[in-house]
Amino acid sequence: MAKEKIEYKITDLPGVGPALASKLEAAGVTDLMGIAVLSPPELSNISGCSEAVARKAIQSARKMLNLGFEDATEYMKKREELLTITSGSRNLDNLLGGRGVETRAITEAYGAFGSGKTQLAHCLAVNVQLPKERGGAEGKAVWIDTEGTFRPERVKQIAEAKGLDPSKAMKNIFVARAFNSDHQMLLVSKVADMIKEGETIKVLIIDSLTAHFRAEFSGRGMLADRQQKINKHLHELMRLAEQYGIAIYVTNQVMANPALLFGDPTTAIGGHIVGHASTYRIYLRKGRKDSRVAKLIDSPNLPESECVFFIDKGGLIDLEVAAEE
Fold first, then answer.
1. What is the DSSP string of 218-267?
2. What is the mean pLDDT of the chain?
3. Which residue from 100, 116, 14 is spatially nearest to 60, judged by alpha carbons?
């Protein structure tokens, strides 16, 4: 089934020739899935073809992709084939189901400044390059930097600790600075193009997801517009993760909830929109004696739990390793 998805092109659809295909590509529709999820009027408006031609193309795309139901056994087999990327900490990997950050999923980490969100991002950007038997995905990373947090020096440190060639490790990480929310969304769309061009990207990191949206849509009067735009952005990320089998790791900013009288008032930005879109949601905070505490807040298949890890020059480590050092 996966092979069919790769082999088919939009020009294989009835009524879609090179001229129509170039119009669709200019509009950002470059594959069968992009056509399959459209309605006939939408495809007609984008391409200029009649609704009858659009309907036939959509139906053919859905047949070629074999979009429909499958039994849970088949679904389970697909789940077993998912790649994972180790965080470097066995405790944190176990918190996420045993093997680390999952492909075809969005993993969100939120917490205050210095809680370890960006440190985990640097680790994933390096660890994704490791062989599968060492917890990697034998792939490359894309880092969309919205706050100027990417540090090549940190990549070099972690790569050396993992026994990788630092210069090769840095060449396998593609970094772009996003200057506003529209630029951020445009960069996400470019990731799909890079994969189609042959780049073996296995993790997309956005640090941080909500910074630009928060700055551009300030005040309660703009909250609905902000949430609608974040929702669109997250759905594009979900589609990217599912379609190309990559892991999405996003960091998120926090604020204090003044209505909460007892307990930790720390709340993630983005509200329910971000919460529902994230497959795995982790709350990071500083612990005692330079430790970090990770709490799994939300997951479709794992219980709420927490663990402790440390950060050293080689990345994320556990208490036993820290004690030995």
1. -SGGGHHHHHHHHHHHHHHHHHHHHHHT-EEEEEE-EEE-TT--SS--EE
2. 88
3. 14
**Domains within the chain, CATH numbers bracketed:** 2-65 (1.10.150.20), 78-324 (3.40.50.300)
In tens, the pLDDT along 11-42 reads 889 888 888 888 888 777 778 888 887 889 98
Q: CA-CA distance, 142 to 206, in Å (whole number)? A: 8
Residue that has been written with the tokens 């408006």 in this structure: 45
Q: What pLDDT sits at residue 3?
A: 42
* pLDDT attached to residue 121: 98
- How many CB atoms neighbour CB 98 within 10 A? 10
Listed in sequence order, the residues at least 6 apart from 108 whose beta carbon sits closer than 8 Å to its beta carbon are 209, 249, 250, 251, 252, 268, 274, 278, 280, 281, 282
Cα 140 from Cα 129, distance rounded (Å): 6
User: Are residues 137 and 202 in contact, defined by beta-carbon separation less than 8 angstroms?
Assistant: yes
Q: Which two tokens stand for residue 209?
A: 């997801």
Among the listed residues 49, 59, 53, 56, the one whose alpha carbon sits nearest the alpha carbon of residue 22 = 49
How far apart CA 254 and CA 248 sit, in angstroms, is: 19
Instruction: Tell me which residue of 65, 61, 77 sits closest to 15, measured CA to CA.
Output: 61
d(CA 132, CA 84): 8
Residue pLDDT, tens place only, 70-101: 889 988 888 888 999 999 999 999 999 999 99
